[in-house]
Amino acid sequence: MNVPEMEKVLLEKEKELDSYIRDERGVVRICAKAIKEVHNGDLAEAKELAARAKSGMEALPKIGNRRRMVEQEYTEAVAFIAVAEGGEIPSNHELGVEPEPYLLGLLDCIGEIKRLVVEQLRGGNREKAEHYFMRMESIYDEIGHLHFSGALIPDLRHKQDVCRSLLEDARGKLIK
User: Fold this and answer.
1) Closest Cα to residue 60, out of 17, 11, 106, 9?
2) How many structural domains comprise the chain?
3) What is the CATH number of the domain that holds 40?
């Protein structure tokens, strides 16, 4: 038996995985900061953070499905910046991410856009709130009908349900 040899190999793999997880968390934090900066109205800083996140994401090796979470967070941040700027949301190919995390990131983005709807309504800017609502609705219209196994895209169905609820709540706030 060569258990001591296998232990050495596994300890090295564990060390690499620990490093990966630390780097992965760093990229996710940068994405969260980019989203926060959009809400703070600093799109230039948000874009700079998104660029840093992209570099960090690209530096991560693809270890099974490990990179999916990072790609999902990156998609959410970049899509949210695009919506806040009034631009088009880049495709998954343009972002360099897989389809599964891309779709989940767009669904997460709907929640952030709803915050913009509420902020605009609170500030008395109904027209802008309606614009953001329409963006929420258009994202959901593209993704809401998709049905795939949870083994392929975990949480897709749940996120779709949450987004439908967010849309209805935002619609209710706009009707008032």
Assistant:
1) 17
2) 1
3) 1.20.58.2140
pLDDT in tens, the chain (176 residues): 898 899 999 999 888 888 888 999 999 999 999 999 999 999 999 999 999 999 999 999 877 677 899 999 999 999 999 999 999 999 999 999 999 999 999 999 999 999 999 999 999 999 999 999 999 999 999 999 999 999 999 999 999 999 999 999 999 999 97
Q: How far apart are CA 26 and CA 23, in angstroms?
A: 5
Range of the domain at 120: 3-175
Contact 133, 57 (CB under 8 A): no
Distance, in Å, from the CA atom of 151 to the CA atom of 154, rounded to the nearest integer, reads 6
